[in-house]
Amino acid sequence: MTEDLNRLKVILAEKKKSNKWLSEQLNIGQATVSKWYTNRSQPSLDMATRIADTLGVSLDELVRRENA
């Protein structure tokens, strides 16, 4: 399955923030955020919650769900 599971790229663009900014806010490596940004890997549920909080969006807005 190649479907994007998170909307991180879209939300960062809407908020006019970069993946570098997010990595600094979360105190994690930019390469890790880049993998999430390109949907090559996914953050844990705990980290997804931190991302959503940092970006001021709900977890539902961050995660793409089928039949939503």
From TrEMBL:
HTH cro/C1-type domain: residues covered: 22-62
Any Pfam family the entry gives: HTH_26
PROSITE patterns attached to this UniProt entry: HTH_CROC1
Record keyword DNA-binding present: yes
SUPFAM superfamilies: lambda repressor-like DNA-binding domains (SSF47413)
UniProt entry keywords in alphabetical sequence: DNA-binding
Chain segments annotated as transmembrane: none
GO function terms (MF aspect): DNA binding
Protein name, per record: DNA-binding XRE family transcriptional regulator
Organism: Hoylesella shahii DSM 15611 = JCM 12083
